[in-house]
Each structure stands twice: as C-alpha cells, then as structure tokens.
C-alpha cells in the first residue's frame, strides 16, 4: 500500500480543491448528511481534525462522547455549538487543522498508540480513519451540488479498514465473527484482495461500491456486489468504515 500519510495529505488536497470552488450559496446548500448544510459538514471535519492534533496527539486524550451521548449525537452537539462561521473562516480553520495532521501522525514511532473514539489506534490506522471520514463527507458535500469528486486508488485504505474492522462490526450487531475474503476491483481496474482467499465467505465487486456500503452511503442492494457463503451477506450488511 502507498504511504498512508502521503495519501492522507492527497485526500485533503482533493477536498480542498473542491471546497475552494464553492460559492457562498453552495456552502449554505443542504448536504447529503441529514440535517447538515455543506458548512456544517466542513465544520464537523474541522472539529474532528482539531481533536486529532489537539486531543489525541498533543494531550493524549480520547475523542469520546459524554455519558449517554452517542458519537453521532456528540458530533451534532459540537456542530450546533459553533454553527454560523463565514465560509472563508471555516475553510481556513479546516485547512489549518487538516494540513497539520499527516506530518503530526508521521512523527510518531512504530508502536505508538493514540487515543481516539473507542480504542487506541496506531498513527497509521488513525490516518486511515481520517481518509475514510474525509472521503465519505466529501461525497456528502459534492454529490448534492453536482461537483466532481473522482474515486482514486486511496480507496484501498478505506476498503482495508472496512475489512479489518469486520470483527468489530459483527460484535456490534451481536453476531459471531466469521472469516471473509473481499475481492474488489479498484477504480483503475486493478484487483484488491483482503482476507484469506480460501475463506468460506466472499464479497466481490467494485471497491467504490464496497466502500460506500461501509460508509452507509449505499445499501448493499443498491450495488452490484455479490456475497457468497453462509455469512457473506451478514458481513456486507454490517460492514463499516468507522467505529461508532
């Protein structure tokens, strides 16, 4: 896999180019994230990037919901508390936090564990979650506006994360773990394989669709993905690119 920190920076640059092109009216437009405008989505990304550099890396504390609040509920509370920033200020705030993250994560030696939402993560895995979140929210921003946001080979990181966390996804749903092999076609036509090729459960199809299912941007039945084996359909139903 390509250097995760370089790819994180590249994902930020792609989103930055899309955001820089938006008009004030587009910033106020509803996003595909329910109840949030485009500005709200960018504010959320700025807040979570500040949590990476300010809490996880500098302070060593976790980005956790308060008692009785879900992660999504906390995100809504945080956005509501700061909603209304002018787009130019909001973009500058996100840029300051985001563009500091790759090098800040890269600076940690192997074996480091950084606090995050549910579980301490390695810097590489935390960088992977940031690619996954920015990519998914970039879709929330660009799709309703008809702004292009092409899929790239960086989806390999997102697909890896989705497969790597299947055990967690099964557990969240109260299901026993099961071995799953994912054979996916990359945006450039390359083949990506995750898991044991001899596993009794297999998911095949486009990586772009698999990642969207994991991000809850598509339902499995809206895709051409195929699930073969006694637990493959369960895996496709519970797969996620995030921890919540």
UniProtKB/TrEMBL annotation:
UniProt xrefs under InterPro entries: DinB/YfiT-like, Maleyloyr_isom, MDMPI_metal-binding
Keywords: Isomerase, Pyruvate
Superkingdom classification of source: Bacteria
GO MF annotation terms: isomerase activity; metal ion binding
Pfam families xrefs: MDMPI_N
Domain Mycothiol-dependent maleylpyruvate isomerase metal-binding: residue ranges: 8-141
Protein name, UniProt field: Maleylpyruvate isomerase family mycothiol-dependent enzyme
Organism: Nonomuraea turkmeniaca
């Amino acid at each position: 896999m390509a250097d995760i920190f370089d790819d994180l920076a590249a994902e930020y640059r792609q989103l930055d180019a899309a955001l820089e092109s938006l008009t004030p009216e587009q910033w106020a437009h509803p996003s595909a994230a329910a109840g949030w405008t485009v500005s709200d989505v960018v504010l959320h990304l700025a807040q979570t990037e500040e949590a990476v550099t300010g809490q996880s890396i500098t302070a060593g504390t976790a980005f956790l919901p308060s008692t009785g609040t879900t992660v999504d509920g906390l995100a809504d509370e945080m956005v509501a508390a700061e909603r209304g920033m002018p787009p130019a200020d909001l973009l500058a705030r996100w840029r300051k936090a985001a563009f500091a993250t790759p090098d800040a994560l890269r600076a940690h030696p192997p074996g480091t564990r950084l606090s995050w939402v549910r579980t301490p993560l390695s810097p590489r895995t935390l960088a992977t979650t940031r690619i996954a979140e920015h990519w998914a929210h970039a879709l929330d921003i660009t799709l309703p506006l008809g702004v292009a946001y092409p899929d790239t080979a960086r989806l390999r990181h997102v697909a890896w994360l989705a497969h790597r966390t299947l055990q967690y996804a099964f557990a969240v749903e109260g299901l026993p773990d099961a071995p799953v092999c994912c054979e996916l076609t990359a945006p450039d036509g390359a083949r990506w394989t995750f898991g044991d090729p001899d596993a009794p459960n297999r998911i095949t199809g486009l990586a772009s669709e698999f990642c969207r299912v994991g991000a809850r941007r598509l339902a499995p039945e809206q895709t051409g993905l195929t699930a073969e084996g006694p637990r493959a359909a369960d895996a496709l139903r519970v797969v996620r690119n995030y921890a919540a």
